[in-house]
Design a protein that fits this description.
Elements (H helix, E strand, L loop, with lengths): L2 E5 L4 E3 L6 H7 L18 E6 L9 H7 L9 E3 L9 E4 L3
Parallel strand pairs: 1-5
Antiparallel strand pairs: 1-2, 3-4, 3-5
Length: about 100
């Protein structure tokens, strides 16, 4: 199973391959803000992929549109509700 390490806490969890990051994190007690409940209607679950991003498929157009509204968006920004974990990654949860 792939692992996800969260920064700044350093906590690592195992995730079923193909699971969406937001739900997997919440299931294991990792708090990621999610005002819309993970329905791709806001940007509160914004994360920054720090390691392993080259393995991930890119964001779909709807996710890209929402990421355009994130004030501190980076080239490796994703919405946790849309990011499918397929390999080991490290993500930062912005404050």
């Amino acid at each position: 199973m792939p692992t996800v390490t969260f920064l700044p806490s350093g906590r690592t969890i195992e995730v079923a391959k193909g699971a969406r990051l937001l739900q997997a994190a919440l299931d294991q007690g990792v708090e990621i803000a999610h005002s819309c409940g993970g329905n791709l209607a806001c940007t509160t679950c914004h994360v920054i992929v720090k390691k392993g991003g080259w393995w991930l498929s890119g964001p779909e157009p709807d996710e890209e549109d929402l990421l355009d509204a994130v004030s501190d968006v980076q080239s490796n920004s994703r919405l946790a509700c849309q990011l499918k974990v397929t390999r080991n990654i490290t993500v930062e949860i912005p404050s």
